Amino acid sequence: MKEPARILVVGGGYVGMYTALRLQRRLRRGEARVIVLDPEPYMTYQPFLPEAAAGSISPRHVVVPLRRVLKKCQVLIGEAASIDHARRVATVKTLATEEEGTGPVEIGYDELVLAPGSVSRTLPVPGLADFGIGFKTVEEAIKLRNHVLEQLDIASSTRDPAIRDAALTFVFVGGGYAGVEALGDLEDMARYATRYYHNLAPADMKWVLVEATGRILPEVGEEMGRYAVRELRGRNIDVRLDTRLDSCEKRIVVLSDGTRFPARTLVWTAGVKPHPVLAASDLPRNDRGRLKCTAALRVDGVDHAWAAGDAAAVPDRTSDDPEALCAPNAQHAVRQARTLADNIVASLRGEQVKDYEHSYAGSVASLGLHKGVAHVYGRKLKGYPAWFMHRAYHLSRVPTFNRKARVLAEWSLAGLFKREIVSLGSLEHPRAEFELAAGTRRHPEGL
Hints:
seven-stranded mixed sheet
């Protein structure tokens, strides 16, 4: 009897989870065994991170448990340290190998799906590594929410005007989706929260968006991008275009236009780069570090290796430019995963594989509660209609009916009750109370 093929899926994000989900639906019993490798036991639905940071959605509803969704797959919590595709072996670090002190283990496979996503792209800006906060994970979203509310507490209780000004200054670097949506939702939340402070007003806060190019939200088009700038500036948000962050040492922000000011909050969302595991493989990459792929989502010139999403440079068959590549976004990732899974099944059965082709439908972006911009199928929307479309579209993309129902229920209840403005910063140091009782010293961390 023929042994079932071993399919190793590296990454449990959009591409990894959706590919495994479709594989477990389409594969016949005993045809293949699917192993999903990811450092976390859940997939994060990143478009909802700003709402989780603002408290509009519970953080646990922004993540999808891999083991619950992928019941027919083996979910392995760990990280690929390297990949030797010539031997069809991945070297993997897991929690168990760290505890045992045995070092990484090797996992063999017949078919490889590389979908590790991307990581934040940082620059050698003085002070950034010490004081910056990223915005790619649910943990970072929770951290940022608690941090912003803690700054309001600091500003309300201090008598030092310098500390107060620094606490009430919030700087976001990067004018893409992550930066603009995070700023919009958090500014909304903080403005609402000030009504519960006797000595704070919205006008006391300073929100700054720093973007190195001449526009924000390029995905929604130039006209809607200009509208977004006007909308943010209308809320007293300082939008700095064609400006870079030069330094943030000692919590002093220095911009390329010569501006200097103290700030206790610096959120870095200035782009991403390919996951390091791609460089630790023997697979071909392009000049930007992404895997060279064919339109069928195979790694170019390599058998039994597949990729999609942020990790893959996939030709865009809908473009007139033969060199054009699909944009590394969620819209393409979800659809590529479907084609990728179907092609793996076809390959196992000796059938013809299909090329991936999808015309870009457009983009939607939130600018805070009831505010947004959209450019979808040539139609331009702004304000409440765009915000509603943003929520409706992303709700439709959330995996599983259970998750959709929970998110919808939270939105419905949020319309009936007031916002929660409690900071749970102690979650980041859960042993602090016990350490105090035990007489050990706790060193504060963070900004």
